[in-house]
Amino acid sequence: MRAPLAALRRDNAAEAQIKSVLAAHPEFGAAYTWAATQYIDRKMYSEAEAELRSLGKLRGQN
User: Fold this and answer.
1) Looking at the domain assignment, is residue 46 inside a domain?
2) How sure is the predictor about 2, in pLDDT bands with cuts at 50, 70 and 90?
3) 3-state secondary structure of 32
4) Higher-confidence residue: 5 or 1?
5) In a domain? residue 3
6) Rounded to 5 degrees, what angle do the CA atoms 52, 53, 54 make?
7) Which of these, 8, 15, 7, lies nearest to 39 by C-alpha position?
8) What is the pLDDT of residues 8-60, one digit of tens each?
9) 18 vs 61, 62, CA distance in Å?
10) Does residue 6 fall inside a structural domain?
11) 22 with 31: CB under 8 angstroms?
């Protein structure tokens, strides 16, 4: 079993991976949550907020 890139602290690779998932499947809500979690862990709060707002928009929330 391979460890997730985030667990290996390969932040840039993990970010690229989640962005590619979101680009290919923009309706996959869990990817927005995971992206936000990654950004929060890296103290990138404005990026995390943007991902969570995208998730809210996807689910029809403000």
Assistant:
1) yes
2) very low
3) helix
4) 5
5) no
6) 90
7) 15
8) 566 788 888 889 999 999 999 999 999 999 899 889 999 999 999 999 999 99
9) 22, 23
10) no
11) yes
Tell me which amino acid residue 33 is: T
In whole angstroms, what is the distance from residue 37 CA to residue 52 CA? 10
Q: Residue 3 has what pLDDT?
A: 47
The residue segments making up the domain with residue 25 are 11-58
Which candidate, 52, 21, 24, 23, places its Cα nearest to that of 36?
A: 52
7 by DSSP, 3-state: which? coil
Does some domain include residue 5? no
Distance CA 62, CA 59 (A): 9
The count of domains in the chain is: 1
